[in-house]
């Protein structure tokens, strides 16, 4: 993939976030999107080496649209200024709505690569299932939080939108009460893109995302636990 071309396009889009400019540059966008699709396709194959459940993820469905949802928020810019994808089992299109962990990647115009894994703002029923599993499998969740590879690459779980008080029905003295207060169970990493070595993009991404597998595996187990 021509990473320099992509970051230049995204940077220009950030400065010209309007429909006339995008229509004029649509042929350029189409080429870059096709190249990004190739990257996601290769990445799925690499992730499947350690996580077979994503083997049949449809790469076209994994890609997010560049059009923004303008129904909410004050920012009415019509286009996202990044390319992104979420890789999940069973061709799930929107992991945040369906529930279940995803591997995520995002390339930004400033030459930044963001990648991570887990569940971002899961729906209420799924959120409660994860919290319940923290109580049921406190020891297993402790092992995840202390996983050397996870901590080395990502640090701690993201603390965004954390509750100030324990959610209803959960003991304030529960072992993992601070994690139970979270609304997302996701880890992030941000690095500078190696624009001069695009061949390293997929291997480096796969290696980094593999370090999050302990969290992904535990989150999947939480779904099984709450069905029993």
Principal-axes shape call: globular
Helix and strand content put the structural class at alpha+beta
Number of domains: 1
**Poorly predicted runs:** none
Number of strands: 4
Helical proportion, percent range: 40-55%
What are the secondary-structure elements, in order, as H or E? Answer: HHHHEHEEHHHHEHH
Number of helices: 11
List the helices and strands and how they pair.
Elements (H helix, E strand, L loop, with lengths): L2 H13 L3 H6 L1 H22 L11 H4 L19 E6 L7 H4 L3 E7 L3 E8 L4 H13 L1 H8 L2 H7 L22 H4 L4 E8 L8 H10 L2 H13 L3
Helix pairs in contact: 3-10, 6-11
Write up this protein.
This protein has helices at 3-15, 19-24, 26-47, 59-62, 95-98, 124-136, 138-145, 148-154, 177-180, 201-210, 213-225, and strands at 82-87, 102-108, 112-119, 185-192. It has one domain (3-225). The protein is α+β, with helices and mostly antiparallel strands and 228 residues long. The termini are far apart. The longest helix is centred in the first third of the chain and has 22 residues, at 26-47. The protein is built from 11 helices and 4 strands; from the N terminus they run ααααβαββααααβαα. A hairpin with a 3-residue loop joins strand 2 (102-108) and strand 3 (112-119). It has a 4-stranded antiparallel β-sheet.
